[in-house]
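Predict the 3D structure for this chain.
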Amino acid sequence: MKAAFSAEAIGLGDDMKMSALYREAGLRARSSRPWVAQITGTSKRYGMERRFLPHRNDWRAANKNATRGVMFWWTLEEGRLYQAQYRRSRNDWVTEFLRVTAAGEVERVPADEARRIAAAMGGRDA
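Done. Predicted structure below.
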């Protein structure tokens, strides 16, 4: 079973402007874009080994400056564990673990359970 997961890219327009300024100055800007990664095991360096998933953009509800209303979408599959990071507001970031149920619903997974699942998968440097 597959399910769709979305997160609003709050502040995306501002982020794109700052990235351009940083590039002109030869610097690398920290992105504030939402992301989803599949957990593939454990890692000594990061705690969990992740594979970041590509997203699709939906600009239909975006405001003029693209600071609100731009949605990022991912397709998640049953039997896999995911980590997502996105904003609820300008200063409120959320990091959570997700999985797809047999009914095709996206459910949150407590962090301690996610760590147990990742440990059972093993890892490159575990």
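DSSP finds two helices and eight strands in the chain.
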